[in-house]
Amino acid sequence: MSNLTTTQQHFKTVTSFEIFVSSQFQGDVNAICWHRELIGDYGEIVSAFQPTENITVIDEKQLVAMQLTEQGQLARSIILNDLQLLKNYGASPILNLIKCYERDDSTSFFPTDVYSFHADSSPINTDTFLCTYFGEPSEILPNEFAEKKVLVTEIRNELKMNFTGTEDEFENYLREHFFDLHYQAKPNANVISLGIGKLWRLAVDSPESKVQPCIHRAPIEKNGEYRLLLIC
Q1: SS3 call for 56
Q2: Which of 2, 40, 109, 114 has its CB surrounded by the most CB atoms within 10 Å?
């Protein structure tokens, strides 16, 4: 796995939120990173919750009401500022505390959960924003290292075994079940960790997009460790 100093041609690094939201995707660049070193104790915020669900949404009122040390307060101020910046931009950010995501049946030969490399899709022009404050970070796969799984002969043939209909109906079936949005890494692929504290903009598969969608996945969480993730 690479770090943020390699494969730079696939993403752009910026130093302010204003440049972050105004920069354009172009060429092979379909991800933009606001690179910053965060201060504060984000683990303290995670430890303050006792979630009963695999995914817990933390709203701003809960965050503000938390009794935190000075380092925890610093972390909270950064998160609240990120939420406000994105809201002012017109996005709808959500802060999630994640134990794990729902996974497809382990017997499925074609999982379509978020642990699989996938592209986000939208009928309108939009981007995906995310930032991991604590826990395992998300990953992206440069498009040159990715194969769309429905175009792999063996996978396509197995999908057709459980389908009866015309070729056009089959293509609709692939879209309806989101099979067409999932990818597999080529041998020796350079997977990029998005790191901790970096705010990312990822290109989405949408009608007006001028670049390929950014392929990404959720990481496998460490046993017993939650992730604190902003996403919209």
Answers
A1: strand
A2: 40
Instruction: Give the distance, in angstroms, between the CA of residue 104 and the centroid of all CA atoms in the same chain.
Output: 18
Mean pLDDT, rounded, for 118-124? 92
Which among 168, 140, 112 is positioned nearest to 12, based on CA atoms? 140
Tokens of 21: 């939201």
CA distances from 118 to 88, 96, 110, 185 (A): 28, 20, 12, 11
Percent of the chain with pLDDT over 90: 67
DSSP for residue 178: T
Position 101, amino acid: Y
Task: For tokens 């293509």, name the residue.
Answer: 171
What span, in angstroms and rounded, lies between the C-alpha atoms of 117 and 230? 19
CB 143 within 8 A of CB 28: yes
φ, ψ for residue 43 (rounded to 5)? -65, -30
- Classify the phi-psi angles of 148: left when phi > 0, otherwise alpha if psi is within -120 to 50, otherwise beta: beta
CB of 199 closer than 8 Å to CB of 65: no
Please give the span between the terminal C-alpha atoms of the chain, in angstroms, as a whole number.
Answer: 25
Residue 13's DSSP bridge partners are 33
